[in-house]
Amino acid sequence: MGTCLSAVANSERRKCQLRSKEIDRQLSDAERQERNVIKILILGTGESGKSTLVKQMKIIHNDGYTKDEMRGFREFAQQILNCNRYYDEFTTLIPNVVTALKSLWKDKGIREGVARGFEYELNDSALYFFENMTRITADKYIPNTTDVLRSRVRTHGVVETEFKVESLVIRMYDVGGQRSERRKWAQCFDDVRALLFVVAISEYDMTLIEDPNRNRLRESFQLFSTFCGSVYFKFTATVCMAGYWEDNCPQLGLLFLNKLDLFREKILFTDRQLRYFVPEYRGPDRDCDAAALFIQHRFDTMYNQNKRVFSHFITATDTSNVKEVFQSVIQTIVKENLRQSTLI
């Protein structure tokens, strides 16, 4: 009897040991897999281009959008033709409105007015959609990739996008940038490897939708300054593009100065010079490089003096430009990931 009980006990003990080893193996595998997961949190004010960057990652790394997904952007593309500044209010483009729009678009004055839409804060992509109006208002219209990139979809809450780059799994978290959405930022910092702050430098002459008395660039200045001084970023190295990583820093920081194409057009071809909206600028008018570098320097001086700030100018709607930029970013992340894995 005792021998039988002993055999049963030994059998149960072996089963427990095997289960324990299996659990340890699963935990080890999960830890190893998680080590290859890079979480990137994207922050910035509303309409700075955060969501466009996320769309580009899907196009570059996830084989783009399916036809069904493309159809989902149809109403957003058509909504821009309504010139509706508040993107939560959808209005159907009824046939007589389409006819009227096409008639108006034949007028030279209307065309010139839309081309100067930045003077009254018309959507950045309004000119593009008006020029493609016939295609976009067709009954069987399905947006193409460029339409999707130029469609404005306001972000509510936190939107997660996942894609693979070599052996890494990248998870990007796009957080709404309007003031009402920013209280949600704090809950997103756990286990984040890289923090990406996006600024639309072309909006130096524009005001916030939620506060028409507040300049958008100044809002970005203040937000970035507050962000850099917060506890969430206290021990983070700020790296915007180049291969720099400060030892013992748990996070990688990125700063993208976006909408360089629109910025260049305003500085070179309009009278809306930077000094009229940011009096601190003392550089020459119609000098895109001088104006852009001034803005870059303003952001650089807001960060901890003991750390370097690497920034990168970008046009988020340009897929080749975004691809090149993120290749450099991923190389830096891969290098740090390997270092932490004691492989280099």
Automatic annotation (TrEMBL):
Pfam families: G-alpha. Mg(2+) binds at S51, T155. GTP binds at residues 47-52, 124-125, 149-155, 174-178, 258-261, 316. InterPro entries: Gprotein_alpha_su (IPR001019), GproteinA_insert (IPR011025), P-loop_NTPase (IPR027417). The keyword Transmembrane helix does not apply. Keywords: GTP-binding, Magnesium, Metal-binding, Nucleotide-binding, Transducer. Signal peptide: none annotated. SUPFAM superfamilies: P-loop containing nucleoside triphosphate hydrolases, Transducin (alpha subunit), insertion domain. GO terms for cellular component: cytoplasm; heterotrimeric G-protein complex. One of its GO terms (biological process) is adenylate cyclase-modulating G protein-coupled receptor signaling pathway. One of its GO terms (molecular function) is metal ion binding. The keyword DNA damage does not apply. SMART domains: G_alpha. This is Uncharacterized protein.
